[in-house]
Amino acid sequence: MHKWTVPVSICDILILFGVFTGFTFAVLLFFSKRVHHGANRCLALALLTLVCWLCWVLGIDTDISHYMPYWSYIPLQYSLTLGPLIWLYVQLLTNPRPVFYKKYWWHLSPFLLEQGVFIAELWQGYRKGTPTYYTTAFWQFNPILQVLALASVLSYLLLSIRSLNRYHWQLADQFSDADRYQYRRLKRLLIAFGAVWLLWIPYFFVDYFAFNYHLPISGYYPLYLLLAASACWIGAEAFLRPEYILAEMTVEKVSVSAVEKTIIQEELSQRTAWLRKNLEQNLLYMNAGLTLRELADFLGIHPNELSYLINSGTGKNFNDFINEYRVQEALRRIQDPAFNHITLLGIAYDCGFNSKTTFNRSFRQVMEKSPADYRAFEKAPTKL
Question: pTM for this one?
C-alpha cells in the first residue's frame, strides 16, 4: 500500500491557488444572472479550459499517476477552444443585441480534433497500462497540438482586439461620452494575455530542438505561473468590476451617396457653420450624455446626415467634435479668475466631461499639455 507523499513545490502551490481561484470565478460567472449572461458563460468556459490545463500540469508534475494510475484518462486538455471562447465573449459583449448564431459553432470545431487525439492516447495508454502522456500518440501529436493552440489563441486574440477597436470607433461616432462604454481595461487584458502566449514560442523551440521535447515541467514553471495569474486576473476583472454598459447604437444605415445628394458639397461649409452656431448658442455640448441621435433630433435632421456633416465638415468623429467644445469651455474657465476656487475636476464636470481620464486625454489632444500644467502656467506670476 502506497503512502501519499506527493512531492509539491512552491510553484505547484501557486498554480493550485490559480486553479481554485479560476474555478471559483468560472462558476460564479457561469451561474450569475447579470446582463451579459451569454458572454459571461463563454468566459467561464474559457476559464475552465485554463483551469483544466493547469490541473493536467499539476498531475504530471506531482507524479500523481503513482497513486492514481488512471487519472490521465480524464480529458483535461481543450486548448483549441480557448481562443474561440475568448473571441465569442468579446463578440457577445460588444453586440447591442447579443445572439449566439449557428455560424459561431464552427469556431469550436477544433475541439473534435483535440479529443480525437486524446482518444488515440487513451487507447494506447489503456493497452500498455501507462499514463496517456507516455504514449507514442502523445509524443507524435502533442507538439502539433501545441503549435495549433498557440496559433489559435493569438489569432482569436487579434480578432477580439480588432472587434473592440471597431466597437470603439462606432461609439466615438455616436456618443460624446464614449469612454463610458469602452472596454479599455479589457483590451489591455487581452494584450497582456497575448504577451503570455507569445512566450510559448521560444519555450517550444528550445524544448523541441534542444531537449527533444523532454524538457521537464519545472522548466515551464514561469509560463504556468503566468497562466495561473491570468486565470485569476481574467476572472476578477469580469466578475468583481462593475458591469460594462452596452450602448444602444443606431443600426440603420444610409448610403454615403444618398447623404451627399442631401448635402451638396458646396453647401457643406454653410451647413457646418449652421451646426456650430446651434451647438454654441444652445450650449448643447454641456450635456455629458449627449448622443448623435439626440443632437440630430434637436436639429431636425437624420442621424446619418449629422454624422456625415461632422465627419466631412470638421474632419472629426462625433466624440472628438463635442469634446473639443468642452475643452474650449474649460480653457475659458481656467483663464477666468472667477473660477480659481473650483478644482480642475469640478470644471471638467461642469463643461460636460464625465471622468477625469477623458478630460485629461481630450485636453492633451487640443493643448498638447495636461490641464494641471496649463493652469499652473496660466496662474504663474509674470516676471519682468
Answer: 0.79
* H-only helix segments in the chain: 10-31, 37-61, 82-93, 110-128, 136-172, 184-198, 200-205, 221-239, 256-262, 268-281, 292-299, 303-314, 318-335, 344-350, 356-367, 371-379
Q: Is 31 exposed, middle or buried (0-12, 13-18, 19+ CB in 10 A)?
A: exposed
Angle formed at CA 60 by CA 220 and CA 122, multiple of 5 degrees: 120
CATH number for the domain whose boundaries are 256-379: 1.10.10.60
Closest to 245 measured CA to CA, from 297, 154, 347, 177: 177
Can you give the residue ranges of every domain in the chain?
A: 10-239, 256-379
Cα 190 from Cα 193, distance rounded (Å): 5
Sequence-separated (6 or more) residues with CB below 8 Å from residue 267: none
Cβ 362 vs Cβ 327: under 8 Å: yes
Radius of gyration of the chain (CA): 28
β-partners of residue 291 are 175
* Three cell numbers written together for 152: 489559435
Quick: pLDDT tens for 94-129.
Answer: 876 666 667 788 899 999 999 999 999 999 999 988
> Domain 10-239 has what CATH class?
mainly alpha
DSSP string covering 110-139 = HHHHHHHHHHHHHHHHHHHTS-GGGSHHHH
- Is 256-379 the same fold as 10-239? no
